[in-house]
Each structure stands twice: as structure tokens, then as C-alpha cells.
Design goal:
Radius of gyration: 18 Å
Number of domains: 1
CATH superfamily: Divalent-metal-dependent TIM barrel enzymes
Helix content: 40-55%
CATH class: Alpha Beta
Number of strands: 10
Distance between the termini: 11 Å
Largest sheet: 8 strands, parallel, barrel
Structural class: alpha/beta
Shape: globular
Number of helices: 11
Length: 319
């Protein structure tokens, strides 16, 4: 079943977006989402050592918003400096650094909850490939056990989930973070999570969040991925829909909107995925996170056009 609608507005207006707005102007769009489009759950990135802008924190509290907090932007920023950075890293120093950053972000989440902002999920990713899958799975398992315990203690109402990303080869013609080159594919991630959930039965089991924009780079059907996770022992916490940016060498992780015919993900694709989610007894969220890109043009759509279209489709899919 679809329990909630989540809007990743930051891809069009927030941090690391080519159309980034000042926090005071971002607040206007979040208020419109709640008041006009009836969506009060948002995906946002948080960074270690950089508290959320006070204007946004105050607005989310005032709007009684719920947040799905992703660490993907933290990985993109830190991983661009140190390729070994990540929760599945074979470099122990780099793995521990990622864990320390995650701890700082979870503490930010706790501060937001104290202000009345609900944290629904904390979403993590693996890290880049450095060696064999078994070694990476062992490192990732070690990280997830600690993260699950941390979130269980500090954010008892929130859930930890893993977002599979692309597993493009090292010679893929798009640099990180445009292609993430994950150390583990979805099968390995699911197996690792199963082991964690058996070892540490927290209040909320570790789950998976499917992001269609990440899967397109590997040519994987988001619907097939959703069905795979629903059939597994791992909870599916939700699905975020978007496309990707076409380039001469393949797709780039860019969250092109479903309005973009070149983006690889359409409203019909989203509808098929929503139908699968509705049929499941699991309570999941359905979300969209789209940038203003059209084809290879980062500014192909206007902000209002993209946010309004996402919200309208989310409301239609969740009905």
C-alpha cells in the first residue's frame, strides 16, 4: 500500500542543484507544496558539519513536515575528494570517516525532531567499488549494524534504508558522481541487509529504497527492482521516481523529469510501479525527485513547471 507521498524538491531548488535558490526562496516552494499540492513529506540531503538552514528548519517545523533524509549528497561531495569514502569501503580509515559523518547527520536529525520535524527515514548508499563484492559486503555489514543501532537509539521512530545505485564499470565515460559505480549490486545489498536484520532485530528493520533515476544507468527496470525487493525478506520503505540525463556515452545520474521524453522514465512507468506498490501489504511511500534538466540541458524546464508536474503526478498515483 502507498502510505505517503514524498517530494524531493531539492533536486530543482536546493543544494547541489544548478537552479539552487536561497533558503528563504526555497521555503516558498515548500509552503506551496503543503498548502496547494497537499504534500507534506520531503526528501532532503543533509551534510556533516553543515546544519540545515534555519529558515528551512523553521518552515518544516511550522508545516509539520516529515523528512526522508538522504546521505547521497554527502557521499557525492566527500567521494569526489576521496574515492575510497563510503560505508562499504575497504579502506578502514575512509569507512570510519563516513561513519563519523553519518553520526553527525543523525544528530542533526535528532535536533530537527526536537523542533517537531518528523524524520521518516535515513537513506544511505554503499560507496564506490574498490575490490571484490564479498569484501565490500563485509565492510557494509559492519557499517549497517552500527548505523541501525545508532538510529534505533537516537531516532526510534525513523527507519534506516539503503538506496541501490548504478554499478557502472570503471571505464564508463561519465565521472563520479554522475555515475556512482556502487561496490554492491541490489542482490548483494539485499543479502547484506538480511544478515544485519537477523543479527540486530531493531525496532525498525533496515530496508531498501528504490530510486528509478539511479537504476536507469544500469538499464534496470524500476518496476522489476520494486517487485524483486517486495518478494525478498527485506522491507521496501519506498520508491523515488525520476529519469536520468542522456549523453553520447550513456545515461548520467541527473534526475530528469518524466516530462522529458529523453529521460528514460515516463508517467506510464511511474503508474506501473505505483500499481505494484498498491498491491503490496507493505506500507511504503511513493516519491518524485526531478531536476529542471531537459535532455542534456540543465535548465530545460522552469522550476514551477517541474514541481507542479511532479506533485500532480504523485497525487494521481497515490489516489
Amino acid at each position: 500500500m502507498i502510505a505517503e507521498k514524498v517530494l524531493g524538491a531539492y533536486a530543482a531548488i536546493g543544494t547541489m542543484s544548478p537552479t539552487e535558490l536561497p533558503p528563504s526562496e526555497q521555503v516558498v516552494w515548500y509552503r506551496r507544496a503543503v498548502e496547494e499540492w497537499k504534500i507534506s513529506h520531503f526528501e532532503i540531503p543533509l551534510f556533516a558539519g553543515e546544519p540545515l538552514a534555519p529558515e528551512l528548519a523553521e518552515a518544516f517545523a511550522d508545516l509539520h513536515a516529515s523528512l526522508v533524509v538522504t546521505l547521497v549528497a554527502q557521499w557525492a561531495r566527500a567521494g569526489a575528494v576521496n574515492a575510497a569514502y563510503g560505508f562499504s569501503s575497504l579502506d578502514e580509515r575512509a569507512r570510519v570517516t563516513a561513519m563519523m559523518d553519518a553520526n553527525a547527520i543523525v544528530q542533526q536529525c535528532a535536533s530537527l525532531e526536537e523542533r517537531g520535524v518528523r524524520i521518516r527515514n535515513v537513506i544511505v548508499q554503499t560507496g564506490r567499488r574498490m575490490g571484490g563484492s564479498i569484501q565490500h559486503a563485509i565492510a557494509f555489514h559492519k557499517s549497517l549494524v552500527v548505523l541501525a543501532r545508532l538510529i534505533d537509539a537516537v531516532l526510534p521512530e525513523a527507519g534506516l534504508a539503503v538506496e541501490p545505485t548504478d554499478t557502472r564499470p570503471d571505464d564508463y565515460g561519465i565521472a563520479f558522481p554522475g555515475a556512482k559505480r556502487s561496490s554492491l549490486d541490489t542482490d548483494a545489498i539485499v543479502q547484506t541487509i538480511c544478515a544485519v536484520n537477523r543479527e540486530y532485530p531493531a525496532n525498525s528493520r533496515v530496508g531498501v529504497m528504490v530510486n528509478s533515476g539511479r537504476l536507469i544507468l544500469d538499464g534496470i527496470s524500476p518496476l522489476a527492482m520494486i517487485e524483486q525487493v517486495l518478494d525478498s525478506e527485506v522491507p521496501l520503505v519506498g520508491a523515488i521516481f525520476s529519469g536520468a540525463r542522456p549523453t553520447p556515452v550513456g545515461f548520467r545520474d541527473s534526475h530528469n523529469c518524466h516530462l522529458d521524453p529523453e529521460g528514460g522514465f515516463s508517467a506510464a512507468d511511474a503508474s506501473a510501479c505505483a500499481t505494484a506498490l498498491k498491491r503490496s501489504p507493505q506500507a511504503t511511500f511513493i516519491g518524485m525527485k526531478c531536476s529542471c534538466a531537459r535532455g542534456d540541458d540543465e535548465l530545460g524546464f522552469e522550476i514551477e513547471e517541474v514541481l507542479r508536474a511532479q506533485s500532480a503526478l504523485l497525487n494521481e498515483l497515490a489516489a
